[in-house]
Give the backbone structure.
Amino acid sequence: MRSKLFILLKSPHDFDSLDLMVSIGEGAPTAALLFEDAVLFAANEKKGLELLSVVNQVYMIKDDWEARGLPLVMTSFKMIDYPEAVDLIMEKYEQTITL
Amino acid sequence: MRSKLFILLKSPHDFDSLDLMVSIGEGAPTAALLFEDAVLFAANEKKGLELLSVVNQVYMIKDDWEARGLPLVMTSFKMIDYPEAVDLIMEKYEQTITL
Amino acid sequence: MAESVLILVKKPPYGLEDAFSALRAGLAVLVSGRVPVSNVLLIGEGTLNAVASQRPEAIGMPSNMEALHDLMDLEADVYVVREDLQELVGDVQLLEGVKVIDRERARQVIDEHDLVTTF
Amino acid sequence: MAESVLILVKKPPYGLEDAFSALRAGLAVLVSGRVPVSNVLLIGEGTLNAVASQRPEAIGMPSNMEALHDLMDLEADVYVVREDLQELVGDVQLLEGVKVIDRERARQVIDEHDLVTTF
Amino acid sequence: MNMDTNTAVKLARAALEKGYHVGIFGYGEGVTLIKEGQDPKRFQNVGQEVQDLLEKGLEVVVCETCSQARGLVRGEEIKGTQIGSLTNNLSRFVAKSDRMVTIAR
Amino acid sequence: MNMDTNTAVKLARAALEKGYHVGIFGYGEGVTLIKEGQDPKRFQNVGQEVQDLLEKGLEVVVCETCSQARGLVRGEEIKGTQIGSLTNNLSRFVAKSDRMVTIAR
């Protein structure tokens, strides 16, 4: 199985593909990379843990997170910048799937 | 309480305002008017009944429904055309709220 | 003829322009002097627009906080639904001047306005 | 260098142009002759694009059924996830030629393609 | 592009035919409604619809700030429609209206 | 307008600076990316960003059909960007790419 990086852009409230992520990711190394409104997963324990339970690692874009000014609940999410995001996409994972 | 007509455009899968509809509609005569992807509520018993349980009446635009070619499950939804939609908005209900 | 309009904001700040656009629309209606009352109700993820520590400069976006301040300067009411905010992010500091209300009061607020527009 | 692309369609037909756009993109890639394999996977509400009795002329929209037929004529595989369709609308007749698969097979289909793009 | 502009225009037509006064305010992506020369091929041509309805009394105004953000400038709009402002135009629509319908997701 | 074009352009910049070859294909609403004369006031000017990145080797092509649907025609695009087609341009990007990132909701 190819390793998979899931790209998320929607807020937890609008995100509807958790089931899909589980079934696609089964048996492969997986991570989620959060852009834009998807960083709100890091502010909500319930939603954040849900996400963390279906992928091996969660990354999020620092700028997008900081703009929203919220208390960080999911401290295990890894805060990254755009160059690091490029490394994840180009080097660390074999497939990139937007959900 | 003013009577309320809720306008829905999103598919049941994307629709996230059922709770809100309940709390806004409390104590008032209410209806939902389904346009575009919202007509998919009429094809799914679970989602359709959920919707019907929070408003007094559900209307949907006939053209939008027919385009999708699905078996009609929610036979109590009232199929209407655009002129009838205008009557609902202008005459039958006092407030129009898109959710 | 409408005497009052309520701007209902469901969208969170910054990922979409919707919330910012909503607040500018409310402000413009007030500034015009044509409609006496133009208030804002923040619900669901829309409540996050009232968080005090936003830093929109991190992503080069205009500030939704300023937009809310402008509205309140012109005596618009800005309502935030407590339960929604609590459920999303727990306790956070909000902009000074916003009115934190419960869902029951939110229902009344909606009923009090002639027109309601949603973002 | 990619030898195959999978067009993953989550959006239902007609309310948004996304599903139609997705299918046209898949077709164009095939027609170009530059990429040997360009297949389509319909999941969630995207499965409704394969329903046989659509009547897009009711709202003046181009037909997603035709777009699927064009793809299959060029030997693209069009997969539909059975469980998703069943959950949404129960038993309905689908376009001839589409491959109805389960979620486990959908997972393999995704894994088999070099690139995946989502609509 | 979602079908919201199509829906808005169909609803406007029905209301006009019943004798109501109807205004459409295009906000955000909705400003594309008035761009002249729309050619959506097999999709419905909303611009054409708008043109027809102008003769029946439809008023169409779009937000100038949103238009500028998208590079749409005065002179590119369908004749009879207007690139206007929230303060002048939206407020006038709001003040004059008995009902306001938001067609957006 | 959502912030997807901003995100796409920031990601493209980072990839270019790491020496990757990067192409952006603007599809659907994404075609607004290349409209000349974008003036989004307090929002980030994506058009300006695109212009900078063209010098660093970014290729930007948008779908002609989608552009026509929105009344955006050849000559209105930022110099160095291209109004092209799915068949000629998207297919070339797909064939040449090791990774494809969809930035859309």
